[in-house]
Amino acid sequence: MPSPGGARSGGVPRSKKPQATRAVYTISVAAELSGLGVQTLRLYETRGLLAPARTPGGTRRYSGHDLRRLRRISELIEAGVNLAGVREILVLEARNQRLREENARLRALLQGEGSGPG
């Protein structure tokens, strides 16, 4: 039975769902959720494919964003891409996303200028 305030038996209020960028998962939980081994996650970090947050004590903490990235890495590896190639693809995808966002920002700016008195 939920306790007052909407908390479940684990003591975490339902309204406090982890955000995509909030690093809350330990390496063992992230490994289980991603279907990968703990050593694989450590390898990906060593190879620069993933950079989980660290607690003050040095424990890795993974976010929802990290889990999505792990799924993307797994997709690329299953497609036959090696780790160096995966790293390059991830860099290019991130750059492409930044350029799309900048393009959208500039288009909005231009549309704003075009709608003024003239």
From TrEMBL:
Annotated ranges, domain HTH merR-type: 24-92
Region (Disordered): 1-20
Keyword DNA-binding attributed: yes
CDD domains per the UniProt record, alphabetical: HTH_HspR
InterPro entries: DNA-bd_dom_put_sf (IPR009061), MerR-type_HTH_dom (IPR000551), MerR_fam (IPR047057)
A Gene Ontology molecular function term of the record: DNA-binding transcription factor activity
One Pfam family from the record: MerR_1
SUPFAM superfamilies membership: Putative DNA-binding domain
Protein's UniProt keywords contain DNA-binding: yes
Annotated SMART domains: HTH_MERR (SM00422)
Gene3D superfamilies linked: 1.10.1660.10
Keywords: DNA-binding
Name this protein carries in UniProt: Helix-turn-helix transcriptional regulator
